[in-house]
Amino acid sequence: MKRLIPTMILVILCIGGFWFASSKDFFKEKPPEAPALVNVKKEEVAGYTIKKGDTVIELQQKDGGWTMIRPSAIPLNAVQPAGWIDSFNAVKKDKIVDENPSDLTQFGLNPPAQEFSIKLTNGTTHTLSVGSPVAVQGYYYAKFGGSPEVFQISESTLTSLAKQQIDFMEKRPIQLNYEQVRALSVDWKGHKWTLTKSEPDKKSYEANWKLGDKEVKGVDASGYLDKTAFLSTEQLAKPASEVKGLAQPELRIEIQTAGEDGKETSTVYVGKVENDNVWIAKQGGEWAFAVPASAIQELADKDKEAPAEQK
User: Fold this and answer.
1) Domain limits at 67?
2) For the DUF4340 domain, which residue ranges apply (predicted)?
3) Which domain-ending residue is among 168, 195, 229?
4) Are strands 139-144 and 125-133 parallel, antiparallel or unpaired?
5) 62 — alpha (psi -120 to 50), left (phi > 0) or beta?
6) What residues contact 232, with CB distance under 8 A and at least 6 apart?
7) Is 11 domain-assigned?
8) Residue 248 burial (CB < 10 Å; 0-12/13-18/19+)?
9) Is 201 found in the same domain as 100?
10) What DSSP designation does 138 have?
11) Residue 91 above 50 pLDDT?
12) H-type helices in the chain, by residue range?
């Protein structure tokens, strides 16, 4: 009998394990993942619109470049316009609610609260209509194209599509390629410093630099470049021609760069104070960006930091 005890214990453990696995649906096949509603190729998209109430955002693509048509033109981020198409392609039905409802009003779809439409170069249009939130938190009623079927989509899916105008905008007024920078000069209300690369053949973080007459290691020099490149706005850009006083700026940033052929060029950005912001524009450029004056002050004071403090 004693010899059978280990076997009996093993059998009991196996039965218990099988029961536990069964209770957790380990042996049930997972339902197949819902397919995407549509899969469009980015190069075949002529444009798209995002509509919520009276607010309409419209972007058009031509020759691989994007332009915002409505509500107004802005400098577009290099990634966001095409990235929105990825979000549209990722839309899936989380659950079918009604295959042929008699009244769409009960779902907030007559008229829809929000609409997202993609138009292809061949004239085809795909439209996702979104209505009221579902009683179960985190989902919304939706329908696609001319199909009468009402289904649910997740709130995260809706959030990825329901972008605002500023979400598509390039928020950084200064674009830097660190490896091409040969010198950076900042003049803010008369306080000026210049960072110069002493070893142009080395990587920016490996090279020695000079801040005036002071030697600066590459790791510390990166802090100056970071502060410049990370200047950013949370307001819509406006035409540089609308900023008064740029001809007499309080801020002047000059960046000397070298291309692959070794030819050096100089780019100048100027800024004018307005309340708590500094409107920065590239000389000869189309757009101006409102950057907090505190961020400009931090950049200007960068030369006062000890190397260990520089970030």
Assistant:
1) 42-168
2) 66-239
3) 168
4) antiparallel
5) beta
6) 171, 172, 291, 295
7) no
8) exposed
9) no
10) T
11) yes
12) 4-23, 80-89, 155-161, 218-229, 293-300
